[in-house]
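Hi support team,

I submitted a single chain yesterday and got back a structure, but I'm not sure I'm reading the token output correctly. Could someone confirm the output below corresponds to the sequence I sent? I've pasted both exactly as they appear in my results page.

Thanks,
R.
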Amino acid sequence: MSAIQLTARAAIHEGKLEEFKLLAAQCMRTVREQDSGTLQYDWFLNKAQTECVVRETYRDSGRSWSTLPISEPRWEQFSQSAGPLRCSALRLPSLSRLPLI
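Hi R., thanks for writing in. Yes, this is the structure output for that exact sequence:
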């Protein structure tokens, strides 16, 4: 099976940047400590610190749901500091399936 990459974007609500940064740090720490199927789980802020991009990469699509029980308790807090959330998903091809150039 090939890996799957999820990208999420959200605008940070005015006056909520510090609260948002705290939540982001908690989510990253918890996922890295508790989930072994996650290959990448990174949060980035734009230069103005008004928008966040979250990059998640999982071994396979089945694992992409593995962070839900870990991060779900913070969703309500997250929605109070940022949103709306816009998401996209890409299936990354297996290197063995790519033609050699």
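A quick pointer for reading it: The chain is about 30% helix and 35% strand. Let us know if anything else looks off.

Best,
Support desk
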